[in-house]
Amino acid sequence: MKNTKIFPKDWLQLHPYKQSNPTDLYYTRIANQIHEMMEYTGLASSFEKDDVLQISIRMAAYFEDVISGLNIWRTFITQYKEQTGSYLPFYTISDHYYDDEANLEDVRFLLWHFTQQYHGAKRGTFVNPDNPTNEETANKIYKLFCDQWTVAPENTKMQALFSPETSYDTPEKYAELLHWFHYNSYLLTDSNEYLTETVKEYWSQHPNQRENSQAVMVIYDSLAHVVRLPLLAYTSPKWLSLIMPQSHPDYAIFAEEATKAETFVDPEVKEKEESYKEIYRKFTAVADGKLLFYMKSKQEFIDFASQQLKLEESEYAPLADCIGFDKFAVYASPKEGLQLLADGVEYIKDEENPFYNEKKAADQALAFFIVKHCSMDLLKALEERGMLADAQTKSLLSPERGKAIIHDNWEFLAKYFIKET
Questions:
Q1: Which of 79, 119, 122, 257 is most buried (CB neighbours < 10 A)?
Q2: Does residue 1 register a pLDDT over 50?
């Protein structure tokens, strides 16, 4: 190696132990080789210095995962295949793809994932999965993995995490594994940033609690239990229940925690569920198959809500107070009740939409899948009816490929960016 940029202490940040051994040194060298490849292809120039280090380490950790049979990556691809019939979004899977080995398609996808997390998220952009520099770098990394396949060591310390001999029969033991997975495992990149944002928001609302470390720990633990993650919008307890072998003596604990996390509903939302369902029932009765009603004024909305839906003023007044625009749509969701859609109404391809703008839709309709514009129920219906057909990303291959990247993978994208199911 020309220059060592990554050291064992950097590598150990993604591991639940503090003392390195020869296996850790091996993968640290792999991470440095990946770093050199990123610099050689020019991919590194797209990132801040620390982000290049993180991507290199995390790509090496994927290799460690596959070599050691940790089942972290395999859980994602097998779950995705169960849901869609294919192992991965975006890429055509070759006949030589094996779910227990390193694959070129895996490397390409993970480079997209980390590029999106470290580059796209910071700049508010969608990273094209066909980026040629990513592809060139992926080919080089995959060749490295192939060359090292027969000599790469298994990490027995990591294997012990999911071994039947390792007990998780107390809440403290389970929490320790959960916290590591949520905040420090290689696939997840933004959990700590979200924690920081949440704590800051809590302090802004409770300035007298800044010295209350117990409150911060409660937030730290709560987020690890209930926050949904980019890959498949699963919670960390759900992930662990799938990674952990069902033959593990304490598997029932993992299954129970996953069920609690996946069925968690914010108490404030739960309190309003019945009223939301009733509003949705009234809306669908009036809509007669329509998804949206397009409007131009606050008064038009008030007349619609009060006269056609027969809602009480208290049921629609909060939304009416938000209206300060002259083009929007109204819809209803069984989980969220009556809703307004203003941002993006011009992108909806509907013969009844007076605001539809084909050019704007082609340029910006992609936003529906990466920023929450509406409920997931409505997004699904819009996609199924072809009302977001203009959504695309630029492709060097063809305009058709640019659209296929979005529409063939829209559910994955919505879960990845919006983190809802």
A1: 257
A2: no
